[in-house]
Amino acid sequence: MAEALEEIIDLSLLDPILAKYGAEKGAVIPVLQQTQEIYGYLPKEVLQAVARGMSVPLSQIYGVVTFYSQFYLTRRGKHIIRQCDGTACHVRGAARIVQTMEDELGIPAGETTPDYKYTYEVVYCLGSCGLAPVAVIDDDVVGHLVPERMVQIVRDLDAPAEEG
User: Fold this and answer.
1) What is the spatial distance between Cα 78 and Cα 111, in angstroms, rounded to a whole number?
2) pTM, rounded to two decimals
3) Angle 154-107-155 (CA atoms, 0-180°, nearest 5)?
4) What is the DSSP secondary structure assignment for residue 79, as one 8-state letter?
5) How far apart are CA 119 and CA 108, in angstroms?
6) 3-state helix, strand, coil in the chain (%, to 5)
């Protein structure tokens, strides 16, 4: 298995966000949202810089981050794969897809591969029951899945684009 890659965090990327909002009350969520867009997640050093820049206690920043599921404290993969295992998807074989993908990626659902290429999550409704089993891969809905097709879709994510 590949070793986790070391990441260098450039805190200067926060400067425009903190300059825009400063210590504006009620701006913690938009600041965190924009910050996460830049870094892909909210590392400790970044949260400390946000707290300093907004003159807000770090405990309050962590409280917001841990309350809302939209925020992530750990680095996520380049590709985000959300597999539905809600009732319709489960009945139509989602559990086999989950097992196959865990084997393919070498990680349990809910984790990110050590090379940070893939984050694989199981969710319990994507609102597309008519397409069951369904997944959202990098914001694209893919339905009527079977394990083999799901593996091929994920393998193709990093394949070089064909020139046409």
Assistant:
1) 13
2) 0.78
3) 15
4) E
5) 10
6) 45, 10, 45
Locate 158 and state its tokens: 């990093």
Q: Is the link from the previous residue into 114 a cis peptide, with omega within 30 of 0?
A: no
What does the block give as tokens for 89? 């998807």
In contact, 156 and 117? CB cutoff 8 Å: no
**What is the per-residue pLDDT across 111-122, written as a single tens digit (0 to 9) for each?**
999 999 999 999
CA pair distance 20, 14, nearest whole angstrom: 10
| Location of structure tokens 């070793």 | 3
Domains parsed from the chain with CATH numbers: 11-67 (1.10.10), 79-156 (3.40.30.10)
pLDDT tens column, 95-137: 999 999 999 999 999 999 999 999 999 999 999 999 999 999 9
